[in-house]
């Protein structure tokens, strides 16, 4: 396996396995390589200061003919003869785990693999001209008989409205595992937590946000009276998150948390000399209003 540098117009050898390469894929960041070889060996290589790799071989396996990584980069599928092998990344353990191989009799040699962009389906092409389509998900939940939640990966969930058919892809851009998805605010807004972030979304406008957040045991209270901003109240602190923005709009201390006593305005009036005109009015105490 060789590396070509287009800037220096030079090439170098990364590693030299004993059998020739029949399939090759990289992760999303381009810092890791998976290669399949004619003798059934899979080599995993990382680009770091020194370079490291791992190899695995099954004597009963035929040669690997194609490989593809999922859109989220957390699953890799390798195709061979009558068989698909799936490797999943486990962020909590920082290891790749192999799932149960998918055996398909008379499928013959797999020549092409392609994921759907949202990661929910995998298309398989064979040497004999066959095309197989597989649903790919960790689990699927029907929420209140109105929504379908499909966990296509640890950090990605597809939310589908069963009545209208509209879909929203909720994804942690940091690769954190999505623990639970809630649909609140008259079944319009999405709320989900990971170990280090909070995900929010508006199903009507498809505006999604992910902010840094340390959980407090589920004691947060969410208010959705404003269509542009989610108000989160926890332990005397009010946090504002604008839908579609991955940074908090602001945080203030107040003991008077009532959406009818708080006013938030997002670019509702043009102000000369400034691009954004975002204002918050809230109570410091019974007689004092802060803006």
UniProtKB/TrEMBL annotation:
Keywords: Cell projection, Cilium, Developmental protein, Repeat, TPR repeat, WD repeat. Signal peptide: none annotated. The keyword Transmembrane helix does not apply. One of its GO terms (biological process) is intraciliary transport. InterPro entries: WD40/YVTN_repeat-like_dom_sf, WD40_repeat_dom_sf, WD40_rpt. It comes from the Eukaryota. Belongs to the IFT172 family. GO terms for cellular component: axoneme; ciliary basal body; intraciliary transport particle B. It is found in: Cell projection, Cilium. This is Uncharacterized protein. The keyword Repeat applies.
């Amino acid at each position: 396996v060789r590396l070509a540098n287009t800037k220096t117009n030079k090439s170098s050898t990364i590693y030299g396995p004993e059998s020739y390469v029949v399939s090759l894929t990289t992760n999303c960041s381009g810092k890791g390589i998976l290669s399949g070889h004619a003798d059934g060996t899979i080599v995993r290589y990382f680009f770091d200061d020194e370079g490291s790799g791992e190899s695995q071989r099954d004597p009963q396996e035929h040669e690997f003919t194609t490989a593809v990584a999922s859109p989220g980069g957390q699953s890799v599928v390798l195709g061979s003869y009558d068989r698909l092998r799936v490797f999943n990344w486990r962020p909590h353990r920082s290891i790749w785990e192999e799932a149960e191989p998918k055996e398909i009799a008379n499928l013959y040699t797999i020549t092409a693999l392609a994921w759907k962009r949202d990661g929910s389906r995998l298309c398989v092409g064979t040497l004999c001209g066959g095309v197989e389509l597989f649903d790919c998900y960790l689990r699927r939940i029907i929420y209140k008989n109105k929504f379908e939640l499909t966990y296509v990966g640890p950090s990605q969930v597809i939310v589908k409205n069963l009545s209208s058919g509209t879909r929203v892809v909720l994804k942690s851009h940091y690769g954190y595992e999505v623990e639970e998805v809630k649909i609140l605010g008259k079944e319009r807004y999405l709320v989900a937590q990971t170990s280090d972030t909070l995900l929010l979304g508006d199903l009507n406008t498809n505006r999604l946000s992910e902010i840094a957040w340390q959980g407090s045991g589920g004691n947060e209270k969410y208010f959705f009276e404003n269509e542009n901003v989610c108000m989160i109240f926890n332990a005397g602190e009010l946090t504002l998150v604008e839908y579609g923005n991955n940074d908090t709009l602001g945080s203030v201390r107040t003991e008077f948390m009532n959406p009818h006593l708080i006013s938030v305005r997002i670019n509702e009036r043009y102000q000369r000399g400034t691009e954004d005109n975002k204002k918050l009015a809230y109570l410091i105490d019974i007689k004092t209003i802060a803006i």
